[in-house]
Amino acid sequence: MELNSVKEIEVLIAGAGPCGLALACDLARRDVRALVVEQAPTLFPGSRGKGIQPRTREVLDDLGVGDAVREHGGPAPVGMVWQDGRRRQEYDMFRRAAPTETEPYGEPWLMPQWRTQEILLARLRELGGDVAFSTALTGLDQDADGVTAHLTTGSVRASFLVAADGGRSTVRRALGIAMTGEDVDPAPMLVADVRVAEDALDRLNWHAVSEEQGFLTLCPLPGTADFQLVAQFKEGEPDTSPQGVRALVAARTHLAARDITEVRWSSDFRPRAALADRFRDGRVFLAGDAAHVHSPAGGQGLNTSVQDAYNLGWKLGLVLRHGAPATLLDSYEQERRPVAADMLGLSTRIHRGEQERGTAAQQLGLGYREGPLSVGRAGALHSGDRAPDGPTAGGRRLFDVFRGPHFTLLAAGTDAALPTFDGNGDGNLIHVHRTGSHEAYGKGLFLVRPDGYIGWAGEDAPGLARHLARFGLPPVTAS
Q1: What is the pTM of this model?
Q2: Residue 298 clears pLDDT 90, i.e. is over it
Q3: CATH superfamily to which 7-73+111-181+273-362 belongs
Q4: Which long-range CB contacts under 8 A does 424-430 form with residues at least 24 apart?
């Protein structure tokens, strides 16, 4: 895709990582004109963000890529500790749970980041969107009506700009938004994707060695022939060259340098936790690593980033397509910044060995009870809670009912009268569904937001109209 003149679009997304691509997919299914620009010539080639938590799998399923994630990923293998070239003991760093009616994904899923991005890009193209590669954002100007972004290929005029351009975000720096944080660990680290000779190391375990120089792990990446290598350097600096990676493995494990048959990608980094002082400046939003940088130990970075996109997408869609007040966009920072702060704390504690990877890491318990869009409670749920899955009539699941860019008014275990909607064709923004009793819901009416959280809950419909008006949604009348 080439840009060589000023063009009018609705949303410009800087960065084609998982966050930017997820947001582009969400906007495309809402018929919002969005453009993704990426300064690199191709998608990111490495495995870095390989862990997909159960909540993120739910999000990806809603975006239409659940089957592809299931096909190309796999469960995390059990760890194996090595010492002096011998296997010593197995250990499991994750909480594993069988799928349930309310939580269909019970354990972390591994898939290299490059594969996640390939899947999301393919989905974006299915929806009619694309990415402009080799296109860097060099500056921006904004006014009351929009943002003019200056690119290496021309200029773009957009109603909104979303910075999903990583921890060294050009957009964030142009806006002068500071990142507040700390070094999680003073020791630098190396991460690489490598191929290992078939007879040298099995793919049944996540292999780990701990030495005075620091730990080293080799994790088989499902759906590929690769291992992800992660190594800590308590002394010295990482050598990311193929020769350096091979020498590192030979020095710290029982493998020989020749057993690393290929080094496909490598990088070094220092674990850091940092949070942007704000997530919005006028018509510009920060999302993903541009807004928060995590230690990889907790497996929260990519997941929190995708869920930033999931929170912002439906709000931009309502404002741009359905006349919702622009003040709705204030809720993005109000809801997502506290979540990001909590996940940063979790990642840091896990990295330092102060907390195990448990239920909190799955992100199923995250919500927006204290958020500005949450009103009421009914049955077993508060507004702001994640809307659980469950069976419904005809063999469908509640997640099947929720899937898509719409709101869902769910009547669970109640005969309360349901409203009808009069919105000059916008009634399809709110689907109405009546179901039997569900223990996870209890009895009541629940308005499920497009991102799968309860926005409003009550015993009967009065009060719902006032809540919907906040979104510019169609008025309700008693049925």
Answers
A1: 0.95
A2: no
A3: FAD/NAD(P)-binding domain (3.50.50.60)
A4: 424/474, 426/322, 426/473, 426/474, 427/474, 429/322, 429/473, 429/474, 430/406, 430/468, 430/473, 430/474
